Amino acid sequence: MSTITADKFLDFFIHFDPNNPNHRRAAYMLAGVIPDAAMRDSAEWVKTYRTANAQPLTAETVQWSEWDARVSEHFTVGEVFQFDDFRRQRVTAENKRRIVKLAARLDVLRKQFGPLGVTSWFRDPVTNARVGGVDDSYHLTGGAADVFPLQFNPLEFEQWCEQNWNGGVGRGIKAGRRFVHLDDGPKGVWDY
Fold it and tell me: One short Pfam family name for this protein (predicted)?
């Protein structure tokens, strides 16, 4: 039995022709096996699908006061601030611009490796000191995020980032942490 992944699902609909009776029949067969709750307007995937932005987001168009608002195709304000109002209240316009730019770069990884969890992104100086961050951390500018793949081998993800990320890479997985640090600074790799 094969597993239906998001890529296979998307591939199916890329070729969907509503005028082809075989395609319509296949879509009805698929709908017949999806639970009713997943097909309601209130289902999270339906809301996401219907509210996806056709235009790229900018720091000025993001609804920063809403936790569920998107800063990019795949990342939300809540993930950027870890649902912490203290952090959100201390972000500047320049921080927001860097957050949106980094989010667009992380979207590329998301498309290649599947969903990414976020353990830390923007940190104000107080939060940064509390978690033991360095004084010149890229997290202070919104230009760094600590992420991990939800559906991909974390060590392979980290190795790919070491070789391909055009910026800073902190190897957290190899150090026994749950994340890889990615930033928009100069290309470089270090261990925690």
Answer: Peptidase_M15_3
Report whether 32 contacts 60 (CB < 8 A): no
Average pLDDT over residues 36-55: 71
Looking at the chain, the domain(s) classified CATH 3.30.1380.10 span 56-191
Within 8 A by CB and 6+ apart from 83, the residues are 67
Taking every pair of Cα atoms in the chain, the longest distance, rounded to a whole number of angstroms, is 62
If one counts every other C-beta atom within 10 angstroms of the C-beta of residue 28, the result is: 9
Measured CA angle at 113 (ends 109, 118), to 5 deg = 65
Two tokens, residue 118: 């976020």
| pTM, two decimal places | 0.72
Architecture category of domain 56-191 in CATH:
2-Layer Sandwich (3.30)
Q: Is the dihedral of CA 93, 60, 101, 119 positive or negative?
A: positive
Which residues partner with 146 through β-bridges?
A: 120, 181
pLDDT of residue 1: 43
Distance of CA 126 to the CA centre of its chain: 25
Token pair of 55 as six digits: 């235009």
Rg (CA), the chain: 19
Q: Alpha-carbon distance 79 to 119, whole Å?
A: 8
pLDDT single digits (tens) 113-148: 999 999 999 999 999 999 999 999 999 999 999 999
Number of Cβ within 10 Å of residue 72's Cβ equals 23
